[in-house]
């Protein structure tokens, strides 16, 4: 029975606590209420009874729902029974908030029980001084292995890797390998393949577990191993690694250092998080919200958003100066001021559409060779076609509203120009940023709207001025 | 030395064809040139020699880079040597384009060699008539298993599942199980766990492969199986299934029908694609570009974008009518027309920031209970603080530019109002759509900018009219 519990799958543990999530997958409100009551009353054992059996990912969700004091109460009341891997599942701001309040000795005890990759993701956020204090409180072997991971650059494969893996020599048989695994107590928690290495820990091949199970005991490992290898450099960016997982449907991959020595493995569950984060990042960058979390403080949020708004203020003032050039024109015909935002707004939206498609295609590396030329051509044509469609629509509406066919023709002409410009800018701006090695998601939006605003106002007011002889 | 090359670290099979990808991970231009020459010359064997060894994901990338005629030439020249699973890796429009040109008999031969989930994803795009013709050309067992999967709703777990899996009775030992796997020829290609089922195929437990390898031959399977199970209903939406994978770090999970009978398995590689698509979808919906691919035709692209632009035209006209209310005011003071887009644009951007954070938090199910209240409060406060900051900035700039402190005060007041409204609308609009069971990504952007435009223009022109007594 106790063995049963040992083997209990993390994933299922949530189910043990009965009614933890409702049908929509949200945490049960009654469950939370009970936990809050226990926390308030300081009933450490009851807190442990309800939180203890949860999967660390569920514990993370619970922490995110609690407020600052409740979170600290939970961690303090559970003490050494708190599973620190839950901290890898919460927003960075919450993680830091909790770790700052805990004594380094408590962090060291918590980190000691974690997988290498989880421990690294907690330690990398700490101040250097605290980090060193925690590290020096750890057993030698763990300290060295964590230090080694932390030496790799931020967001590299080396930071995300798990350093426990099974490496065997090529001359073993399937039988040897199975016996070794039955005997050895110090195996990784979960693994999907075995690595065949030479004496210098250079990887010679990999063997998926199912292949070992299908082969007879006498089969030499060398004869069943994969020799066309996918290996990832520990210094490589985690996004690049995630792209390999996605492209080749990988579940686990070996990580090697600059000398080709195997130092760890990356597993797909960590890469899923990276893929999610990457898509999210583009999303946020386009809107200028940096790497904000919903649990960030007001001050952090203001700080993260102001720079983007300042840039927008500059471009808005610039746009306004373009309008200012036509002061006299507007004075003679106020209808122009009323209509001009329509041209700018339509251009802005069309530009955003093209830009979104381009930014995502760049992020997914979909724009090789011929596809790029086709995409540019298509976007310009789409801009032209949409320009015609909306020129007719707005032209007719304007002519009817003001009983002035000429005004309708002017706005129609401006619309066609701005829609073509929108399509062109929507694709060329992100492409140029990409060529300049800047992240196209970060600055495209502001450039594209500036272009469509300026061109929209300029074309409309300019054509009107010429047409009606208002200059 | 040649052995060295075989094992060089980077995407497996791709290497066999020598320099298939360059350092940036893009397909080598020279490689493509050579392939194009072979295709043009109709050299079937050479085409097969260079494309054959590629991973199907790489073949998919190659297909995407070719133009329409080259794609067809490739598939026709390779004939039965073409791996149809490459078609699961290309944009839907390209997939359909190729399948439409192929005779159904050729599709049937190609599909017969595929895993069940890949076959389903090709067949589900076909017209019912073609689909039935392909199905009836397949061997009975495959036909029935595919039909069964196709009976599940679109985008359900049942459509994405693999129907090959290993199920054993609970009374077997580890030894029995290993012997069975050594003996049985008809096993799935790759698998990560074994399912323990009763006579009615109801799942009793799961055993990860590493656990079998660590246990002695005499160990009863029942004593080492996981009994707290995560199972997915075949009718469940694939996004919900993907969320489970993400939350619980799963690699493989059993799929059961409405009677609790095990019918298949989902693996993490398919879920990675779903996670990617889901994030992507929100991204595209916000910009109003639907589920476009970069390889869509011009006509499809126009068709997908026009509806969004029509909505935007309506709201732009509405906004323009709000400005029209202040015709007389603008006539008396043209500076208002020059300045008004600044207030609207700043509000639009601030609103987009809040909206982006909210839409993503809703998609990730991060807004349970207390966090929601905190987020609303934070966004309103952030709007107020940013309002003050930018009110001062633009107020000073305006006062200096026009030498008119009063005009500066008016634009400052309008800015504060619009920034608070932006924060409030940016969070309440997606929340309301979510409550109404609409996808908040799809319509939030247009509502939020309409609100910030209308309020921006109205507040600025209205305050100016009152202040300067222009009504």
TrEMBL record, chains A, B:
It is found in: Cell membrane; Membrane. One of its GO terms (cellular component) is plasma membrane. SMART domains: CBS, MgtE_N. InterPro entries: CBS_dom, CBS_dom_sf, Mg_transptr_MgtE_intracell_dom, MgtE_N_sf, MgtE_transporter, SLC41_membr_dom, SLC41_membr_dom_sf. PROSITE patterns: CBS. The keyword Magnesium applies. The chain crosses the membrane at residues 308-328, 334-359, 380-403, 409-433, 445-470. Pfam families: CBS, MgtE, MgtE_N. Its main location: membrane. It comes from the Bacteria. Keywords: CBS domain, Cell membrane, Magnesium, Membrane, Metal-binding, Transmembrane, Transmembrane helix, Transport. One of its GO terms (molecular function) is magnesium ion transmembrane transporter activity. Residues 161-223, 225-281 form the CBS domain. It is a multi-pass membrane protein. Acts as a magnesium transporter. Belongs to the SLC41A transporter family. Homodimer. NCBIfam families: mgtE. This is Magnesium transporter MgtE. It comes from Devosia oryzisoli. The gene is mgtE.
């Amino acid at each position: 029975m106790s063995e049963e519990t040992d083997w209990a799958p993390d994933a299922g543990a949530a189910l043990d606590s009965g009614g933890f999530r409702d049908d929509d997958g949200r945490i049960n409100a009654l469950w939370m209420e009970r936990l809050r009551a226990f926390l308030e009353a300081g009933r450490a054992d009851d807190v442990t009874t309800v939180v203890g059996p949860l999967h660390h990912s569920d514990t993370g969700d619970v922490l995110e729902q609690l407020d600052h004091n409740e979170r600290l109460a939970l961690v303090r009341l559970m003490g050494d029974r708190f599973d620190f891997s839950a901290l890898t599942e919460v927003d960075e701001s919450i993680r830091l908030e909790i770790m700052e309040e805990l004594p380094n000795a408590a962090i060291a005890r918590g980190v000691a029980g974690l997988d290498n990759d989880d421990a690294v993701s907690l330690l990398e956020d700490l101040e250097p001084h605290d980090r060193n204090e925690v590290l020096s409180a750890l057993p030698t072997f763990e300290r060295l292995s964590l230090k080694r991971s932390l030496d790799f650059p931020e967001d590299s494969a080396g930071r995300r890797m798990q350093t426990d893996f099974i490496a065997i020599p090529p001359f073993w048989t399937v039988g040897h390998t199975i016996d070794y695994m039955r005997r050895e107590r110090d195996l990784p928690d979960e693994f999907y393949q075995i690595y065949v290495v030479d004496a210098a820990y250079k990887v010679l091949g990999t063997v998926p577990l199912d292949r070992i199970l299908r082969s007879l005991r006498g089969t030499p490992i060398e004869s069943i191993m994969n020799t066309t290898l996918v290996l990832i450099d520990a210094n490589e960016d985690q996004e690049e690694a995630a792209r390999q997982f996605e492209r080749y449907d990988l579940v686990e991959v070996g990580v090697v250092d600059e000398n080709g020595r195997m130092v760890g493995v990356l597993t797909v569950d960590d890469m899923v998080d990276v893929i999610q984060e990457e898509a999210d990042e583009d999303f946020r960058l386009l809107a200028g919200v940096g790497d904000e979390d919903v649990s960030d403080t007001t001050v952090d949020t203001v700080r993260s958003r102001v720079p983007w708004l300042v840039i927008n203020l500059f471009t808005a003032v610039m746009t306004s100066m373009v309008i200012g050039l036509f002061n006299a024109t507007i004075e003679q015909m106020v209808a122009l001021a009323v209509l001009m935002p329509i041209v700018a707004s339509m251009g802005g939206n069309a530009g955003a559409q093209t830009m979104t498609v381009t930014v995502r295609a760049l992020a997914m590396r979909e724009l090789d060779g011929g596809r790029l030329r086709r995409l540019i051509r298509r976007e310009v044509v789409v801009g032209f076609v949409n320009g015609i469609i909306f020129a007719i629509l707005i032209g007719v509406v304007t002519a009817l509203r003001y009983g002035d066919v000429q005004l309708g023709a002017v706005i129609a002409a401006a619309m066609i120009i701005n829609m073509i410009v929108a399509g062109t800018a929507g694709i060329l701006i992100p492409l140029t940023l990409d060529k300049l090695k800047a992240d196209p998601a970060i600055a495209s939006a502001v450039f594209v709207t500036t272009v469509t605003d300026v061109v929209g106002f300029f074309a409309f007011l300019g054509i009107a001025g010429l047409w009606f002889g208002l200059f």
